[in-house]
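Re-run with default settings, no changes from the original entry. Doing this only to confirm the output is reproducible before filing.
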Amino acid sequence: MSAAATGAADLRAELAALRKRAADTPALPEGPAAAAAAVLAFFDPFALPGLGEAGPDDPGLDAIMGLSEPVSDPPGFWTLGLHARRALLARLGSREAVRIALESVPDRPEVAAQLGFELIAQGPEAVRSALEGASLKRVAGLSIARTWVEGVAALEEGMPGADEIASALADLRRRAPLRELVGDHFTGRDSILSRMRAHLSPDAPSEVLFIHGPGGVGKSTVLAKFSLEIEESGVADAIVYLNLDRPLLRPGEPLTLLQDLLAQLAQQFGEHAGVLEEAAGRVAATAERFDRAFKAGSGLESMSVSGFWETMIGD
């Protein structure tokens, strides 16, 4: 068989496969129930608006369920598949139509993805305002809902990209432990905060500032407050917060501290994220080799420690 004949046969087989997939794909359901399913993170099939007199036996509901899958929590609820959701949102055609579909279901899920989608329905300004805020739940929801509208022109127009939202989410997650420590009612500590600010001035002596005191007096809280303050003011290029209460950070194994430090820097220096993440991975691999060597009783003698540090510093 000639190359041309082989190519034609392959093309016919491809077209046949495409026709079969198209025949196997359920048609998009019509009506307000389908529109509501498209704008909800999950739904109760029997509470969707616009079902006909047949109620649960409405053929439109059968079509929606054929494109959906059950969620584990809460039980009895379903969520529309991603491709069907995008297709139905594209068919709605405008933010106004999306808002009408949302209003048709007053009792909507109060989960992150739903909150994020409703911000997208409001428009780019609402989304950017959320990214500049401090609500981890809203930005996490935006990260999920942004995938729902990929390729939906009416909802993507002017919208921050998925990478920008992911970066904002990573920053919020990094700062979340600090915000939790500080809370909403931090007051006082003016004297120690002033000394810490002075320590960052260009004329400050090049030495470590050590904060000490009995347990429970607020050392971690004042450090968290100072870290957030200088990050938000732009005084420092980066902030690294190593919480030794975390089980993964072990002072007796300093490579665990270095790995976490590099991971935090990768989040803050996006243009160098690849290099920093690679370095963090190498540190983790070296820590594992140390651990295996100690367990085998061979100690550090079998490890090329100096070579490791020379390579790291050189990079």
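The radius of gyration is 27 Å. Residues 273-295 form the longest helix (23 residues).
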